[in-house]
Amino acid sequence: MQSLLSTLHDAAMSADAWPKALQRLMDEAGVAGAALIVTNKTTGTVDEAVFCGLSAEFKSRYVETYAALDPYSPMLGARWSMLSTCLPEALLRRSEWYNEFVLSCGVRDILGARLTDTAGHSVVLGIHQRIGRHFSQDVEPLIATITEPLRHAARCHLDRLNGGQPIGDPQTTKPADGGHFFFHIENGTNYPDECGSILLSPGHAAERGLTIARELARDGGWSGFSVVVTDDRGRTITRVPIES
């Protein structure tokens, strides 16, 4: 554990230390892969990515093709969430990203979170378990221990991208009008979002819903469905049709 914390400290100091930090995380968690993805909110593209383990050789395919089809990353919030519980099986069966990228990497499931989120960028981290394996019971306490060091390293990484200027992270505070929001997929049959995300405001939640709808539209096969955004009381914020 001390070695992992040390490498996360190094990652906070230098981007070059992220591959070693992810490898240490994989070793401690007993998983077969990990990926750190920095997304540019203005362009909607991946600015930086570090892939280790199973998905390492597929990094360019993700950045060039499958990032735009990824329905999982936009749904991630501050809480750690499993791919298998965040997205319904029916959606995954239809997903080009899941079938042609995730499974092709040999990945069975992903445990991910949004480490930091600013006006210009978001940083998500996913740890990958191979097909035929399950996450061990040791993963949850490990993640609980290292989440804050991970967030700190991610914020430092964005500071460097911002020319060394510290930038605010809305995940570190919960504004008065912020809260927990959910992104359900509906078309007669409901595919509920069991995880949700912590966001600044209903307006930010509506923007996230629009992003998810656009991602699913690119994936194809979701015409007629809608992304329904609700708050933690079940009140509908917006309903975004998915138009292929």
Element string (H = helix, E = strand): HHEEHEHHHEEHEEEHEE
Q: Assign the CATH class of the largest domain.
A: Alpha Beta
Amino- and carboxy-terminal Cα gap = 46 Å
Figure out the total of helices: 8
Report the C-alpha radius of gyration, rounded.
Answer: 17 Å
Reported for the largest beta sheet, the result is:
5 strands, antiparallel
Overall domain count: 2
The CATH homologous superfamily of the largest domain is termed: Transcription factor LuxR-like, autoinducer-binding domain
Low-pLDDT regions: 172-177
The appropriate CATH architecture of the largest domain is: 2-Layer Sandwich
Percent strand equals 25-35%
Which class best fits the helix and strand makeup? alpha+beta
Give the spatial strand order of the biggest sheet: 2-1-5-4-3
Number of strands: 10
Pfam families: DUF6894
Protein name: DUF6894 domain-containing protein
InterPro entries: DUF6894
Walk me through the structure.
There is one protein chain. It is built from eight helices and ten strands. It has 244 residues and is an alpha+beta fold. It folds into two domains: 2-161, Transcription factor LuxR-like, autoinducer-binding domain (Beta-Lactamase); 174-241. α1 (2-13) runs antiparallel to α2 and α1 packs parallel to α7 (139-161). InterPro entries: DUF6894. Pfam families: DUF6894 (PF21834).
